[in-house]
Amino acid sequence: MFAVIKMELKELIIDEYNRNGLFIVISILSLILGYFEFNFYFINLSWIAILLCGLPIIKDAILGLIVDHDIKADVLVSMGIISSILIGEVFAAGVISVIMAIGGFLEEYTVNKTEKGIEEIYDLNPLNARIILDYSKTTEKEVLTDTEVVKVKDIIKVLPGEQIPVDGRIIEGHSSVDESALTGESIAKDKKVNSPVYSGTINTYGSFYMEATKEGKDSSIQKLINLIEEAKPENAHVVRQADKWATWIVVIAFVLAISTWFITGEVIRAVTILVVFCPCGLVLATPTAIVGASGNLTKFGILVRNGETIEKLSKVKDIAFDKTGTLTYGKPKVVNIIPEDNISQEEFIQLVASVEKNSEHPLAKAIINKFEEDFNGDYLKTKDFKMVLSEGVEARIDKDNEDMEIFVGKKEFISNHVSVSENSQISKFEENGSTIIYASSENRFLGSIVLLDVLREDSKIVISQLNGENINSLMLTGDNEKTANYIASQLDLNDFKANCMPEDKINTITSYQKSNKMIAMVGDGINDGPALKKADVGIAMGGVGSDITIEASDITFVSDDIRYIPHLFDVSKKTMEKINVNIFLSLAINFTAMFLAMFGLIGPVAGALIHNIGSVIVVINSSLLLNYKITDKDFSLINNNGISKEFSKSK
């Protein structure tokens, strides 16, 4: 039993956060005893508080001066503690030390709680890989090693339930992979030979062999971790400015303290000024707000590169959207089935889907998905399947004991076999940018299927919400003028540019910047990389497996959910409001306490208490950002996304 207690005590002391808490408790007890003049061999027990809580403050102040050549707030506190000791106020020095230590402890607690959700993603980083040596031989050898040593083209075996160690592609076997932690997709994805797999995702049931396409340090999950590590609040311009002000305040406090001592002759007033005028609240004003904002956004699957990004976003009044994969889903979907010659929809799509089942083309998959989801019928047996490159496919089908050849593809391909009848509906769909697939038998036209990259359900709402916040939305698309105009009309967008090549998007963004307008760019991170990089704030939707998404953007939407863009803007503005309020409160409390100290209305103990009340108010005010606009309804929405499930533990 004593061994267990000894072990737990050892762990408590080793952990700095817990150790500080223990020291504070011991120091408070020593102050209580010191207050009632319980001495140890004529030594005031308040010295215990000075040694445990005051000494670390003095040490940090000295290191800051010598190593960093920086006048930190700890300098004033240290001078206050030392001055109190010199004038015989040992109890006051102990109280100042403990109050300052409690303030730092509470600040650390709040920040730790805020960052806990962000750090959950570190658990997704795989540690081990099962590398296969002599894969092509009958006597293969298996070696379990660190993920860091995996090289490109290494062959890796992944067992059921294991995390995939690095990015790669399957070369043998098949399985279903849970990618929810990366993409927010709640349904596991089927994987087969040549399917890409990403590090940090989980193999659910089948074993497979994969070839590494990236080293561990370049894998998808590691890029996300690197992105989080770059999200340091001290990078923001407003943080650097606050630090400069804090340095000047330290100098001003020192001058005022000396002046007050010289004029009044009361050193106790000078000591109190040093204590109350410490700019701790000012130093905390910005980083705590930025950390709170980052914690909030992470719950929505939004990763922000650094504090400066939040600062820039709060000033953005224009936002450019790529169309494909951003305002739309980026995948073709069957939106209409138009059979001819008295054929029912079900019979028509059964014929087409049976032929397309032999194809890997994205349009073929969209037709197959439509057939399986809405018609739930059986496929007809096919034979002699052929693919005509860039034209279409054909196959023979046995239907009702009748052998018939079916052709599916472009209008020109079908026209080689039968006459394609004109249809006013088709012309309307073509104007809207739809893709039309035609089908026929050897001697008759069977009909057509309309496919479209449909708008995301929330796109129109997002544009409307941004307009309500006086943020102008612009659509950039490579589509022709008619298609772009149709999409813009569906979104109530007045501003769009069609026929855009990547350089056209960059030129558009540059024109805004030359007009002294800050602009954000939202893209899918694949062909929008240059535009994302050029914009004042680049926002990438999903695509965690894409290097461009991580490297070119300032903000990454891991959950690939466009509806949270207005929330992102709201949080950025609210963060700057919190920072301004924090700075005002901090300075107001400091100056008020300083005047009270100058006129001898408060002493060092009361000064230390007021000082830390100000710091705690700043931290609490910033921590309110964590749950800003997160209602029960919002949580029910975001908890459907995998990454939110990971972070909701820290709520």
The CATH architecture of the domain at 302-328 and 456-570 can be named as 3-Layer(aba) Sandwich
Main beta-sheet strand count, sense and barrel state: 7 strands, mixed
Largest beta sheet: strand ordering: 12-24-23-22-13-20-21
**Structure classification:** alpha+beta
Point out poorly predicted stretches: 1-7, 231-236, 630-651
* Shape, principal axes of CA atoms: elongated
CATH superfamily of the domain at 302-328 and 456-570: HAD superfamily/HAD-like
Give the C-alpha Rg: 33 Å
**CATH classification, class level of the domain at 302-328 and 456-570:** Alpha Beta
Number of helices: 25
If you had to describe this structure to a student in words, what would you say it looks like?
The chain is of the alpha+beta class. Among the domains are: 128-162 and 168-213, Calcium-transporting ATPase, cytoplasmic transduction domain A (Distorted Sandwich), CATH 2.70.150.10; 302-328 and 456-570, Rossmann fold, CATH 3.40.50.1000; 329-455, Calcium-transporting ATPase, cytoplasmic domain N (3-Layer(aba) Sandwich). 51% of the residues lie in helices and 19% in strands. It is built from 25 helices and 24 strands. Strands 12-24-23-22-13-20-21 form a 7-stranded mixed sheet. A 6-stranded antiparallel sheet has the order 14-19-18-17-16-15. A hairpin with a 2-residue loop joins strand 1 and strand 2. Helix 5 (90-119) packs parallel to helix 10. The longest helix has 34 residues, at 565-598. The protein is elongated, with a radius of gyration of 33 Å. The model is unreliable at 1-7, 231-236 and 630-651 (pLDDT under 50).
